[in-house]
Amino acid sequence: MTDSAPPSRARTPWRAVLGGSIGNLVEWFDWFVYASFATYFAGAFFPKGNDTAQLLNTAGIFAVGFFMRPVGGWLLGRFADRRGRKAALTLTVTLMSVSALLIAIAPTYDQVGYFGAAVLLVARLLQGLSVGGEYAASATYLTEASRPGRRGFVSSFQYVSMTMGQLIGLGLQILLQHTMSDDALHSYGWRIPFVVGAVAAAVVFWLRRNLLETEVYAEEDARQDQERGTLGELLRHRKEAALVIALTMGGTVAYYTYTTYLTKYLSNTAGMSKSDASLVSFCALFLFMLLQPLAGSLSDRIGRRPLLITFGFGSMLGTVPIMTALSHADSFAGALLLSLAALVIVTGYTSINAVVKAELFPTHVRALGVALPYALANALFGGTAEYVALWFKKGDAESGFYWYVSACAAVSLIVYLTMRETRDAALSRDRAGGPAASGKQQKTAV
After folding, report:
1. CA dihedral (172, 168, 36, 277) positive or negative
2. In angstroms, how far is the first alpha carbon of the chain from the final one?
3. Which of 50, 103, 123, 136 is least surrounded by Cβ atoms within 10 Å, i.e. has the fewest?
4. Rounded distance, CA 389 to CA 52, Å?
5. pLDDT for res 203
6. 262 has pLDDT over 60
């Protein structure tokens, strides 16, 4: 059974926003730390040789974590629909803590051969399981914990927290780069952020246990619906599920290109030092983070589709020139401006994609409906973005990746142009997907 909060407590909005966001921050700190520190630990788990080949192997394990996300989306999405958003949020951060600890203590190739890579793989599988459920649990929790006119603004804090997690990871990387030698970082320094992540996740576990369940879910839970969170029920909303996959495709490829892959790209292709590349990413992501609530609030005024369409056109037309210019960036300022330009375009997707997906589904299948299709899209496109980029680079055809990103954006753009507006959708719906007109379920206010 889920907790039933008194109205006075349920109307403490920022407690819900903070509780959902801070856990999301730690989740994505651990998730992105793997990517941002890969240049330092890639050689620890694989035989010495070509740097790009080592990164390719490490990126492959990174992608494997994404392929676990659909499993996490199914299991934890079902769990969130049947047991509550709060219970799912607590479980996901527990799994992330365990996975971070495994990476922190994993033995190297010189110590045990490929067994260390196997431990790394298990940890990534756990991370994939956790994040597969975290996205949907967080998206549904933040969406349901806000009134209709503020859902875009409140749900944008999902990417604020995701980006803040990445910023903290990059900030820690920059700090370690300036306080430790390069040899020390390659030897043992890369383990530090994973220890930090494991401890922070344990703290968030305690914080999330004190969260309140959303009123929308608590009222739905009273029905004791046995079909909540089932695949059969999701199939009744297969059109919406397919829509989630299609609208995610271009956004997730662009997002991972300009976030997790950007530091490696600036270092491995543009020839910038690792420390300068990290600093460019940090500054660009900080400004990107500040844009999310502004864009989310704008969507509450003008709708979700205009922002998505702007992203679609911008990514389709702007990726090739921006990535080409970045490959020749020879100054910090030039690289920062180009990176920020790309992230401004991506904001049209990131700031509202969570709320759009949550608004497509009724309460009893909302978490699963968001989790599984989104996780499938990320496994196919987001998780492989870095691997595809390095594959093109290894084949001396790096510009092919730029066109790949543009093509993915073009496919999603077609969806954005034809989909319905979701801004005014009621969170409580009947089985046919129509409004249930329950004013009581819209009480939770931010």
Report:
1. negative
2. 25
3. 50
4. 11
5. 84
6. yes
**Residue of 228, 247, 230 whose CA lies nearest to 239:** 247
Q: How confident is the model at residue 227 (pLDDT cuts 50, 70, 90)?
A: confident
pTM for the whole thing? Answer: 0.80
Question: What's the pLDDT at 52?
Answer: 63
DSSP 431: T
Helix, strand or coil, per DSSP, at residue 435: strand
Q: Which two tokens stand for residue 37?
A: 């520190």
**Residue owning tokens 């844009």:** 291
443: pLDDT strictly greater than 60 = no
Could you tell me the two tokens for 45? 């788990």
d(CA 290, CA 168): 15
- The DSSP output letter for 148 is G
| pLDDT for residue 436 | 38
Q: Could you identify the residue written with the tokens 């976030």?
A: 259
Picking from 207, 83, 100, the residue whose alpha carbon sits closest to that of residue 137 is 83
Average pLDDT in the 385-407 region? 89
The dihedral of CA 172, 173, 175, 180: what is its sign? Answer: positive
Instruction: Map residue 156 onto helix, strand or coil.
Output: coil
Helix boundaries (H) for 303-435: 305-327, 332-350, 353-359, 366-377, 383-394, 399-418
Angle, in degrees to the nearest 10, between helices 157-179 and 115-144: 140
Instruction: Using only the alpha carbons of the chain, give its radius of gyration.
Output: 21
Contacts of 114 by beta carbon, 8 Å cutoff, 6+ apart:
45
Residue found under tokens 């803040």: 164
Q: Which of 100, 148, 126, 81 is nearest to 359 (CA)?
A: 148
Q: Is the pLDDT of residue 54 over 70?
A: no
Contact of 29 with 197, CB cutoff 8 Å: yes
Burial 306-345 (b: 16+ CB within 10 A, else e): ebbbbbbbbbbebbeebbeebbebeeeeebbebbbbbbbb
- Is residue 170 pLDDT above 80, yes or no? no
Q: At what angle do helices 305-327 and 399-418 cross, to 10 degrees?
A: 170
Residue type at 325 in one-letter notation: A
In DSSP terms, which residues pair with 435 in a beta bridge? 429
**pLDDT for 208-217, tens place per residue?**
877 778 778 8
CA distance 434 to 409: 30
Please give the Cα distance from 319 to 302 (Å, whole number): 26
8 A C-beta contact, residue 382 and residue 256:
yes
The first and second tokens of residue 36, run together, are: 């941002």
Average pLDDT of the segment spanning 155-179: 86
